[in-house]
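FAQ

Q: What does a record look like?
A: Structure on top, sequence underneath. For example:
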């Protein structure tokens, strides 16, 4: 028995923030952002639009694609680092918005790797008896972005993507998942204030500690190494070669990181889903948004061999191999 992807969906807020607008906010240029990151524009949630709102839209679309009702769901797993509230879990708000009255719901926190981690949890739940699990990656990164910090504010965007993971007797489905972490590198990407270590205070606000901080250059190097490593581990575990892949769907953080990974793996660009030019880095939402685009554009078809690869704060890195 396997867990397979029965449907995908995504949602992006209407507001587009261009590089030209960022030029008017911080000392940056469209040219620098495009050359160093590959990003042209990103979406930004409307005032009052929170993580659960984006997640519910993406979830509804995934349920429609799977031909299921919300009441068919046994579980909702929401990967996010920008939930509506510190408490309760945002997944419960999504469960209520969807009317998924029979579903349990909880959040999973693994930053940009959150979706792949949640996928692996859904895989295990389905293999142990659940029928339908809704896995969502949803982020309002604009809420934790310091719009005065050019090192980070040009990178992130908002959005949500979702998939329904269902039980299947066939050969298709999730072939393997691979999860890694290294907390020794926790300071490379961090929101230092607002948690139990440094609770909210005037000092936190004055020092802007409620916003994301990143050592971009150091992160870059670890990202290239670990993405390559985990991709090779995944292929080896399944007795497959890079040439066997139909599509690689990586976390969309930086075009130069992805080009370096493609070079090292010998993966041609036609076999890589790239959409960060339009969304920027949407953290846990980036892979499910990309998956949904690939399915809707016909780049993923029944039988396609698809590899996911993610990297992010923690540090964490993760991959999955799926026979669609
Ligand atoms: O999703 C989680 C994982 N995150 C990542 O994977 C992010 C990984 N890192 C990156 O994507 C890249 O490191 C960045 C895009 C963040 C930065 O690119 P970089 O080539 O590593 O630049 P850098 O940090 O080494 O900075 C180079 C220069 C610096 O100026 P000096 O010191 O050489 O004078 C920066 O101050 O670029 C400057 N700079 C900027 N200039 C214009 C940094 N940000 C900007 C900016 N506009 N927005």
């Amino acid at each position: 028995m396997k867990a397979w992807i029965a449907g995908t969906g995504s949602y992006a807020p209407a507001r587009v923030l261009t590089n030209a607008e960022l030029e008017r906010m911080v000392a940056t240029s469209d040219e620098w952002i495009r050359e160093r990151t590959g990003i042209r524009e990103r979406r930004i949630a409307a005032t009052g639009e929170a993580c659960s709102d984006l997640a519910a839209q993406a979830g509804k679309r995934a349920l429609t694609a799977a031909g299921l009702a919300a009441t068919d769901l046994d579980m909702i797993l929401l990967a996010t680092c920008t939930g509506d509230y510190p408490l309760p879990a945002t997944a419960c708000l999504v469960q209520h918005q969807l009317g998924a009255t029979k579903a349990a719901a909880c959040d999973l926190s693994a930053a940009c790797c959150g979706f792949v981690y949640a996928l692996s949890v859904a895989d295990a739940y389905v293999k142990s008896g659940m029928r339908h699990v809704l896995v969502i990656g949803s982020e309002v990164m604009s809420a934790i972005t310091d719009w005065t910090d050019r090192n980070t504010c040009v990178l992130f965007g908002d959005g949500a993507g979702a998939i329904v993971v269902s039980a299947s007797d066939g050969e298709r489905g999730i072939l393997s998942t691979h999860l890694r972490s290294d907390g020794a590198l926790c300071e490379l990407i961090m929101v230092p204030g607002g948690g139990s270590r440094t609770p909210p205070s005037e000092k936190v606000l004055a020092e802007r500690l409620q916003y994301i901080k990143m050592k971009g250059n150091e992160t870059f190097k670890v990202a290239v190494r670990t993405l390559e490593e985990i991709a090779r581990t995944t292929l080896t575990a399944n007795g497959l070669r890079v040439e066997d892949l139909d599509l690689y769907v990586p976390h969309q953080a930086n075009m130069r990181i992805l080009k370096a990974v493609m070079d090292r793996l010998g993966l041609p660009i036609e076999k890589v889903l790239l959409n960060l030019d339009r969304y920027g880095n949407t953290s846990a939402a980036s892979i499910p948004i990309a998956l949904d685009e690939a399915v809707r554009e016909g780049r993923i078809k029944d039988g396609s061999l698809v590899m996911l690869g993610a990297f992010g704060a923690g540090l964490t890195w993760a991959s999955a191999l799926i026979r669609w």
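Q: Is there anything notable about this one?
A: The first strand starts at residue 2 and ends at 11.
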